[in-house]
Amino acid sequence: MGTIDGLPPLREVIRAHELVAKKQLGQNFLLDLNLTAKIARSAGDLTGCDVLEVGPGPGGLTRGLLAEGARRVVAVEKDARALPALEEIAAAYPGRLEVLHGDALELDLAAHLAPPVKIVANLPYNVGTELLIRWLSPPAWPPIWSSLTLMFQKEVAERIVARPRTGHYGRLALLAQWRCDARIVMTLPPEAFTPAPKVHSAVVQLTALPAPRFPCDFAVLQRITAMAFNQRRKMLRSSLKALGPGIEAKLEAVGIPPTARAEEIGLEAFCALARCIG
Ligand code: SAM
């Protein structure tokens, strides 16, 4: 049966290039090109954009991004076995796919991209949150990218979009929502992937705000939210004790009851505390 882009079906690609999934590389592939096109569309209009994709693997999502009209796709893949399959896609879309072989955590990717940039990826689970935190923490804001459309384990996606006073609320929600609008745009069952992972997955759409929602220093916000949520059941006067003897007065000065717990406190109050601690 033909495919929407005339390239071979992904099962054939995987067989031809012997891409047996490796767990240590977080390889759970999407083989349904209708689904990968749908994920590409959830990133909004791609025409005129450079798209950065981390971990293209056999290229299902890459093909979706190209078919949906991305100006260029820059795809970074750690597994050398996938490179020949990706080169076949590059040949079918001349000048529109650049494949980089290496670790996304180590390469300087900005050098390969021209604005406007969107990042779209079915991330390897083992490095997903680390990449997200990096994309959220460039020294200057707004960043090079305008949106991130990222597949995570559903539980991680829920932590990114969580609101105060919920079980998933914590540091990841605060750091993401400080500089972005974040929402879940799609959830997928394990069977959508080959091999099927143990858990459900979800696509999160993060849109960069022109400026952080409330002023404060990113490093200080990171530090206090890490301390506050490492001991999330404790009162803040005790979980933040290491910040010095004046912490109780500082909490009171910004309107946070020292007896409150981290999950009761919203982003605005955490930013006020970060400014007060400086
Ligand atoms: N995008 C493909 C899809 O949707 O079918 C594959 C997604 S699979 C969940 C994750 C991919 O990321 C794999 O191809 C894996 O080899 C690659 N990968 C894992 N760690 C990586 C890293 N540090 N840098 C770049 N790619 C990585």
From TrEMBL:
Reactions the enzyme catalyzes: adenosine(1518)/adenosine(1519) in 16S rRNA + 4 S-adenosyl-L-methionine = N(6)-dimethyladenosine(1518)/N(6)-dimethyladenosine(1519) in 16S rRNA + 4 S-adenosyl-L-homocysteine + 4 H(+)
Top-level taxon in the UniProt lineage: Bacteria
InterPro entries attached to this UniProt entry: KsgA/Erm, rRNA_Ade_diMease-like_C, rRNA_Ade_Mease_Trfase_CS, rRNA_Ade_methylase_Trfase_N, rRNA_adenine_dimethylase, SAM-dependent_MTases_sf
Segments passing through the bilayer: none
PROSITE patterns: RRNA_A_DIMETH (PS01131), SAM_RNA_A_N6_MT (PS51689)
Positions contributing to S-adenosyl-L-methionine binding: 28, 30, 55, 77, 103, 122
EC number: 2.1.1.182
Family named by the database record: Belongs to the class I-like SAM-binding methyltransferase superfamily. rRNA adenine N(6)-methyltransferase family. RsmA subfamily.
Functional note: Specifically dimethylates two adjacent adenosines (A1518 and A1519) in the loop of a conserved hairpin near the 3'-end of 16S rRNA in the 30S particle. May play a critical role in biogenesis of 30S subunits.
Name under which the protein is recorded: Ribosomal RNA small subunit methyltransferase A
